Amino acid sequence: MNSNSNYYRIDRDEWKNFHQDSVPLLSEDKLKGLISLNDKLSLADVKDIYVPLVEVIDLYAKNYRNLRRMKSSFLGRSYEPAPLIIGVSGSVAVGKSTTARVLQKLLQKFYPDKKIGMITTDGFLYPNAELKRRGILNRKGFPESYDMGKLIQFLLDIKTVKPHVKYPIYSHRIYDVVPNAYNEIHQPDILIVEGINVLQLPTNEQIYASDFFDYSIYVDAAVENIENWYLERFEMLMDLAIDQPDNYYYSYAIGNRQEAIEMARGVWKTVNLPNLVNFIAPTMTRADLIIHKTDNHFIDYLNIKKY
Ligand SMILES: Nc1ncnc2c1ncn2[C@@H]1O[C@H](COP(=O)(O)OP(=O)(O)OP(=O)(O)O)[C@@H](O)[C@H]1O
Ligand SMILES: CC(C)(CO)[C@@H](O)C(=O)NCCC(=O)O
């Protein structure tokens, strides 16, 4: 970020001091409990990075409620509460779902009486058969591979507090949207939506998905690191598939390991990297907050939007 960018760059050592020690709901003991649920993150990350972040989100949540209340009163309409929606974006394999998951658990501790939901936009991909029919099977994750109309309808249903809103499920195990399977979400107070496309502008919709996001986070890292994390995850998925013949990764798991890794490297170079460079990274400066990770997923600084 150059000096005239619209962000304050805040190094980890400065950011961690923004934590207000007065917050008893996030005491050290409670945070330890959270770590056992999510061993990918260190307690230091939770304390230094995520606790101050929850407090920033709390500011946005209060402001959002107040503004909507005042707007309703100005318009002479009755106030209807609407959930706060948080978007988490970034490259394939940068760690969006890990970030979203820890944020959900922490927000749930911070607001014990509220319902904090989390979904991924992966379920809104067209199924493989439809991608094939459209000739874009090798563009999975690109803007045209998502049913954006369906995602927008989902967000609208959440904002208007419809009961039991269904959403489709994507499975890395079958490498496809699960046919006729849905999860349900019932009137959350806060919903975290994680996906590579949450900050993208649609090409042919009347409503923008970004209109529904009240706070947005972009997870950023050097492409060399993300490629390594992608390959590490590929190896992990292969290892998990070794005794599951119906698993997409099974044929790779039982074949030549080096060839499988080369294949994954090819997918990174021809699919996920061009998607990152052309369609995901350009949305970064729409985010309210950019979390920067370096080697070993260590968060070294954050960029927080000025205006
Ligand atoms: N803080 C962390 N510490 C250690 N490993 C991490 C951390 N965050 C993510 N990872 C690992 O990096 C890989 C990618 O993370 P994750 O699955 O969260 O990415 P993603 O951005 O949600 O990917 P996708 O878009 O493909 O769903 C995973 O193997 C995950 O275990
Ligand atoms: C499902 C997405 C698009 C996003 O999570 C990604 O994990 C993916 O499958 N990309 C397509 C190329 C690949 O990595 O196989």
UniProtKB/TrEMBL annotation:
It comes from the Bacteria. Pathway: Cofactor biosynthesis; coenzyme A biosynthesis; CoA from (R)-pantothenate: step 1/5. InterPro entries: P-loop_NTPase, PanK, PRK/URK. GO terms for molecular function: ATP binding; pantothenate kinase activity. Residues 85-225 form the Phosphoribulokinase/uridine kinase domain. GO terms for cellular component: cytoplasm. It is found in: Cytoplasm. ATP binds at G90, S91, V92, A93, V94, G95, K96, S97. Keywords: ATP-binding, Coenzyme A biosynthesis, Cytoplasm, Kinase, Nucleotide-binding, Transferase. Its EC number is 2.7.1.33. It catalyses: (R)-pantothenate + ATP = (R)-4'-phosphopantothenate + ADP + H(+). It holds the Pfam family PRK. It is an enzyme of class 2 (transferase). One of its GO terms (biological process) is coenzyme A biosynthetic process. The keyword Isomerase does not apply. The keyword Transferase applies. Belongs to the prokaryotic pantothenate kinase family. HAMAP family: Pantothen_kinase_1. This is Pantothenate kinase. The gene is coaA.
